[in-house]
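If your schedule permits, I should be very grateful for your opinion on a structural question. I would ask you to consider whether the tokens describe a fold that such a sequence might reasonably adopt. Thank you for your consideration; the sequence and its tokens are set out here.
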Amino acid sequence: MTITAPHTSTDIAVYATGLSKIYGEGSTRVEALRGVDVSFTRGRFTAIMGPSGSGKSTLMHCLAGLDEANGGQIFIGGTDISKLNDDALTKMRREKVGFVFQSFNLVPTLTAEANILLPLALAGKKHEAAWLETIVTTLGLKDRLNHKPHELSGGQQQRVAVARALLTRPEVVFGDEPTGNLDSRTGAEVLSLLRSSTREMGQTIIMVTHDAVAASYADTVLLMKDGQLVGQLEDPTVESVTQALSGLGA
């Protein structure tokens, strides 16, 4: 099943063709992905959902270059990542991909600002001061830049993680249950920030979630079952997502 626009369009940030992933052998063999074709339009917020074991996390990890697919091709910003060696793949992830995970993954000894700047520091590159100012202002972090993670609330720590993900102007930001460790109010704030990053900064967001409320912040929801894409919702609501998941047995 092919989702969204054709991958030949310059408006596509990420796409994959014939993506397969197999774990185990013999009686323990599991086809986590079964010939998935999918593309993601630039400047859109997409949520991937499905029952446990549907392949949604595997799909995201393969798309992000965190896990290697057994077959198919994956393109990020026109680069075929399936042809990259380990060093080139690491460089690509650092320059073209941002990550926001359920655990904030901040360095406890560094300030919020140093955590935000870390990807560029590791790459030996200087940051663009005006862009950093835009990000921290948009995310409400200007008065927290000198604080270390233990001095920040969970929501503030996740905002730092979002800022870090946006700093390099990546082709795409992947979110793996990014609000899973947050209370509902703080989670709503972070989801609103992710949504605003697509509208105000033109960022492409791909998020895996099991939460219908979180998915309702997205522009599009992709539905998975048994390693395949089986449906799509545009302008999702909590009600439409819940009904669609119920139809999948989730």
The chain has one domain: 42-54+84-248. The radius of gyration is 18 Å. The chain is about 35% helix and 25% strand.
